[in-house]
Structure formats: C-alpha cells, structure tokens
Amino acid sequence: xxxxxxxxxxxxxxxxxxxxxxxxxxxxxxxxxxxxxxxxxxxxxxxxxxxxxxxxxxxxxxxxxxxxxxxxxxxxxxxxxxxxxxxxxxxxxxxxxxxxxxxxxxxxxxxxxxxxxxxxxxxxxxxxxxxxxxxxxxxxxxxxxxxxxxxxxxxxxxxxxxxxxxxxxxxxxxxxxxxxxxxxxxxxxxxxxxxxxxxxxxxxxxxxxxxxxxxxxxxxxxxxxxxxxx
Length: 230
What we know:
- By secondary structure, this protein is an alpha/beta fold.
- The protein has helices at residues 4-10, 27-34, 48-60, 93-101, 104-108, 121-130, 163-174, 178-199, 206-225; strands at 17-21, 40-45, 67-71, 85-91, 112-117, 133-143, 146-155.
- The protein folds into 2 domains: 4-161, Vaccinia Virus protein VP39 (Rossmann fold, 3-Layer(aba) Sandwich); 178-225.
- Helices cover 46% and strands 22% of the residues.
- Strand 1, helix 2 and strand 2 (40-45) form a beta-alpha-beta unit.
- Helix 4 packs parallel to helix 6 (121-130) and helix 8 (178-199) runs antiparallel to helix 9 (206-225).
- The longest helix has 22 residues, at 178-199.
C-alpha cells in the first residue's frame, strides 16, 4: 500500500505513460500499472541500490512487460516522446529545477509534470512559468506529521501571478483546505520566531527583518483570504 504522500501523487496521473524520476523502489509505477492508471512506465534513479530493489519489486508484481528501469541522472537516459507525463517527487526544489533545465528537449515533449518539491517551492513555481508550463492544480497534504505540496503542471501560460502567489501558491489560495490553513499558521509561527531573533540580534539585519515581516504579512493576508484570522 502506498503512503498518503505517494497515493496523492499517483491520484494526479491522468496519462497512460509516465516517467518516474528518482523512483526509489518504483512504488508509484507499480501501483499505477496495477490499477490500470498507466500501461507503461519508465522508472529512473541515479542510484543502483534502490533501482535493484525496484527491479525486484517489479518482477514480484509481474510487471516487467509494463515497467522499464533505467539508471539515469534525471532524464539523462530518457528520449523525447517516450512518455506523456513525468513525476519528480521527494527531492529539493532546486534539484528539480536543475533536472528540468538539463532536459529541455525531453520536457518540451511532455504533456504533464507532477512535482513534489521538499524545499524552495516558490522557486519551483517561478521556474515552471519560465519553461512555458502552467500550474493547473496544487494540493497540500499531511503525511506522518509532515506537510507536502504537490504541483500539477501542463503546457500553457499562467497570468496575473503576484509575488505572494509564488510564495504561497495561487491554486492553494483558490481552493483552500484544512491542511493549507494549518500550513499557513505554522509558517507564520516560524517566521515570528525568526523576526524575534533578528530584532534581538547584536548585528544589524534591517534587510532580513523587512524580508521576514513581508512574508509574515503575505501569509497573514492569505489566511484572511481563506476566511481565518491568525
């Protein structure tokens, strides 16, 4: 059975072929092929150890005819047009950006990107717009006490994105849930601690203080937009 995080990612797949970058043990490709969501998958990982386990899992599931494994640094060993969608999950935002940057030809042939960055989520949102993809949907879920963002992208152009939209997530503000409210309050609490530390630091930090206060205001405004007060 998939974890809540992986289940949420798998639920966003709506094409018959996928590339799973950083597949680890190939849990998502196995699940989607078993459920009839996909009929072909390429499971890629940069590390041989996890990929060996992935191959064993695929063989155990009897899915060798549907899932191919490749030792690959990002999309390095993937050709343009081999699948309709790609998943990049469970890695840092800047790593996701670098992987996408190094594979522009492959990316240009994809219909969907399903991204689950662990860090630097605003930077991922900004980069998506630079490569002519738009954010169709964004989900925020909690799994084992941790909060995760899942970003679903298709080709096209998004309009009217403000800096706050990039920082917080326009689609999350438009379709709020309880986890999103919890996330906003958590961010405000963390930022207020940073604000206190900067204010009481011996050395000057006016620029940093202003940055933190602007973020606090952005998260507080988003909380109000979805009907809550801090």
